[in-house]
Amino acid sequence: MTKAPNAEFEADCIRRILAGEHQLFHELIRPCERAIYFLLLSILHNEADAEDAAQETAIKVFRNLQLFRGESQFKTWVLSIARNEGLGRLRKSDRLREDSLEALTDESSGDFTPAVLTSWREIPAEALEKKELAGLLREAIEGLPDIYRNAVMLRDIEEMDVNETAAALGITEGSVKVRLHRARALLQRKLAHKLKSFAPKRGLFGRGR
Amino acid sequence: MRIDCEHVWEHISAYIDGDVDAALRADINKHLETCEICSAVLDSTRNVVVLVADGRVFELPAGFSDRLHKRLEPVLQSSET
């Protein structure tokens, strides 16, 4: 699922930046911008804070570039810096609550039963032209417990693979899978009934089952 | 092996990602053939996963990239050797 990272381009860029071609850093960081921002938005819950933290992250990546060892993908390394930046800000502002990031564990019990339906008519991506649908989806994701939201942000929204998501979040691959499963179950339960009204009228895109 | 609905729900996410072994996949498929509830749960979950991945759901704020690179510029220049 992960877009093939251009490791060669990255390695070459990094070498040249470290040798003094600093302007190349703009190109190196560009493919990571989206993931940096949405991971930080997921941690900080606030657009302005996420944007500021994203800028700080990019500056830290530049200043610490010589520390990148190439053991992980560049993007993974960048996201772990973003995550530290986000958590550092939460700690400073005392918003790292009990129910927040690390407190909720994979062993926590909870009800992850899906919404029980007897039929489903597929909602095509075109339905997203309606702002209301995108809004419902965003709201549902924003309402997830932090650890589940971070997993879904990187896996399903940024389409990173399990291994890279685990490395960026500093958790095991098993944890990524558990959290993603729970996140998807919670989203399905929250959204299934609300989304039904966005299904196209039968006969257009409808398919029988 | 005959598996029940809860067993299917437990593995839905892995099933969607193609991350279940062949035997379990076959058991789930067999269950889905006759269980309209699990079929609908699977279809709706998969539909939600596809929809949230659409770039229109989470968009970067307008001008985000420009502001980021503008803030980087003096940092890149000041450390120029």
Shape of chain A: globular
User: How many helices of chain A in DSSP terms?
Assistant: 9
Q: Specify the structural class of chain B.
A: mainly alpha
Q: What is the residue-mean pLDDT of chain A, rounded to a whole number?
A: 88
> Which chains share the greatest interface?
A-B, 53 and 40 residues
Shape of chain B: elongated
Low-confidence stretches of chain A at least 5 residues in length (pLDDT < 50)? none
Helical proportion of chain B, percent range: 55-70%
**What value does the Rg of chain B take, in angstroms?**
23 Å
Number of helices of chain B: 5
Q: What portion of residues of chain B belong to β-strands?
A: under 5%
Radius of gyration of chain A: 19 Å
User: Please, how many domains of chain B?
Assistant: 1
Describe the protein's architecture and organization.
The complex is a heterodimer of chains A (209) and B (81). Helix content of chain A is 57%, strand content 0%. Chain A contains nine helices and no strands. Chain A starts with 6 loop residues before the first helix and ends in a 14-residue tail after the last helix. Chain B is an all-alpha fold. Chain B has one domain. Chain B has five helices and no strands. In chain B, helix 3 packs across helix 4. The longest helix of chain B has 17 residues. Chain B starts with a helix and ends with a helix. At the A-B interface, helix 2, helix 3, helix 4, helix 6 and helix 7 of A face helix 2, helix 4 and helix 5 of B.
